Amino acid sequence: MLFMALDFDGVLCDSAAETAISAWQCAWQLWPDLLQSETISEQMISAFLMVRPYLETGWQSVLMLRMLLENQPLAAFQNDLQTHIERLLRENKLAVSTLVEKFAESRDAWIRDKQQGWLDSHRFYPGTIQALQTAMRKHEVWILTTKQQRFTSLLLKGQGVNFPGEKILGLETKRPKEDLLDEFARGRAGWMLFVEDRLETLLRVIKRPTLQQVRLYYALWGYGTENEQRQARDNKDITCLEIKQFNQLLSEA
Q1: Which tens digit of pLDDT belongs to each residue from 59-71?
Q2: Cα gap 168→81, rounded to integer Å
Q3: What are the strands, taking DSSP E only, across the chain?
Q4: Phi and psi for 241 in degrees, rounded to 5?
Q5: What is the pTM of this model?
Q6: Where in the sequence of the chain do the CATH 3.40.50.1000 domains occur?
Q7: CA–CA gap between residue 229 and residue 231 (Å, rounded)
Q8: In the prediction, which pLDDT does 187 show?
Q9: Distance CA 194, CA 177 (A)
Q10: What CATH number belongs to 3-14+124-252?
Q11: Separation CA 156–CA 12 (nearest Å)
């Protein structure tokens, strides 16, 4: 039996549009005068999709929308995102914990009022649900995500997948994925696999000497940029996968 650790957004599920809408609803509570409209425009959703590859954790999307409203250039998201995140937190007297809570409240309100609409705003990548269900019957499968556990669980249930809640490690853990993998690796014989679409996360795993038994896979269909995809292809410690190969890996391993 293999141990499989899978990212969620960008590997199993495309949630970029939902993230933009939920972030806008959160931003509306914070800056109604700036936003002017409670409903996000298609133009703003498209603008957010362009900068989505630089998002690490969902709550940051609220501040990224604020950056778009400031007409920040793409380079600001590519090279200086953390600086701008810290600036906006400071200028608006916001704590990260407060923004995490408000962002979750926006999603909860949408789910409460129109759950099916919230579910429909997500797109699962072709074949991933069937492949996940096959892998769950054959192997030990965990999901490591920066999305909150309850949202991940609800989305999987919406696809008919009864994924054990205790095997979804989300934002609530407040721990980087390499730490979680390190914990899994202790006392575990044999190799493990980890599939992720964020190159920076994989590079942090590579730096851990205790994680040499983890085989690393980069999801080319996820939110990575062309430059990140090139870096992943050039890294001898990373195997790049197309979506068809990923589904085969889960189904046939």
Answers
A1: 999 999 999 999 9
A2: 28
A3: 3-6, 13-14, 123-124, 140-144, 168-169, 192-196, 214-219, 238-241
A4: -125, 140
A5: 0.93
A6: 3-14+124-252
A7: 5
A8: 75
A9: 10
A10: 3.40.50.1000
A11: 10
